[in-house]
Amino acid sequence: MLASLHWIQDFIKLAEAPADVAHRLTMAGIEVEGVERPGAGNAGVIVGQVRAAEQIPGKSLLACRVFDGNSERSVVCGDTTIRKGESVAYAPPGSSVNGREMGARNFGEVLSEGMLCSLADMGLEQKSDDVLRLKGTAGTPLENLVDLTDEVWELNITPNRADCLSHWGVARELSAVLGRRAAFPKIRLKESGPAISAGVQVEDVEGCSLYVARVIRGVKVGPSPLWVRLRLERAGVRAINNVVDATNLVLLELGQPLHAFDLDRLNGGGVIVRRA
């Protein structure tokens, strides 16, 4: 299991060095087999504002003018969806992207001073084709907007410790190991509108003692916020869309499997739980 240290720290305060906490957890039976720092190889990446973006004749590349907070830079980019006015992740010469030092490079007659970065370029996502769009003023350091200091622990969870197959479960275990209180945020659910009937019929009570469903209206399917995508990625799960990602986020946080259905497409408007 992959666990994000910062995610665990949502539930328990850890004043000790991460290595010490990992050792204590290992000695308690939850072995930390490996440690990764996904954002450690990035330094000096900032927010850049695209002032111009034009197709380079004969190539699937854009010649961009990017404002770095002080001056405009010439940057060649392979993401042809970039548009004037957008704020993006920009690595100027002298910066480091996933351990690679950036410099200036000629693309034919066009000079590229650094690069525009995707999450994959920075080692923060397995695959991403688009340059990372950001909300921030030009020149703002990337670390002010994106968590680059997190640690990811690879945990060896034994079959008898399924209670630790979630970030909340690991935090609760650390609470016992360190003698410190772990607390889950209070959830206040606000319901509105008329009651909606969505039937749940459990035919195999022995195999499934409880199945609970809730109807949510007004959902617009689209990309998840950046922080959600990064949390899923660090836990080894690929982001799909906001609905699927929400169910996976709860699974990784609480250990509770969830599934989202389109109510309009459910035959009979409900869920039947039975043997296959």
Separation, N- and C-terminal Cα atoms: 29 Å
Beta fraction? 15-25%
Write down the overall mean pLDDT: 93
**Over all CA atoms, what is the radius of gyration?**
23 Å
Order of helices and strands: EHHEEEEEEEEEEEHEHHE
Shape field: globular
**Main sheet summary:** 5 strands, antiparallel
Number of strands: 14
Lateral strand order in the biggest sheet: 5-4-3-6-11
The number of distinct helices, counting runs of at least 4 residues, comes to 5
Helical amount: 10-25%
Q: What would you call the structural class?
A: alpha+beta
User: Which parts are unreliable, with pLDDT below 50 for 5 consecutive residues or more?
Assistant: none
Concise overview:
This protein is of the alpha+beta class and 276 residues long. The protein is built from five helices and 14 strands. It has helices at 5-8, 18-27, 167-178, 226-234, 242-254; strands at 2-4, 31-36, 46-55, 62-67, 72-77, 87-91, 96-97, 100-101, 104-107, 110-113, 115-116, 152-156, 199-202, 270-273.
How would you portray this structure in words?
The model has no long low-confidence stretch (mean pLDDT 93). The radius of gyration is 23 Å and the shape is globular. By secondary structure, the chain is of the alpha+beta class. Strand 4 and strand 5 form a beta hairpin. The protein is built from five helices and 14 strands.
Which SSEs are present, and which pair or pack?
Blueprint: E1 2-4, H1 5-8, H2 18-27, E2 31-36, E3 46-55, E4 62-67, E5 72-77, E6 87-91, E7 96-97, E8 100-101, E9 104-107, E10 110-113, E11 115-116, E12 152-156, H3 167-178, E13 199-202, H4 226-234, H5 242-254, E14 270-273
Parallel strand pairs: 13-14
Antiparallel strand pairs: 1-12, 2-12, 3-4, 3-6, 4-5, 6-11, 7-8, 9-10
Helix pairs in contact: 4-5
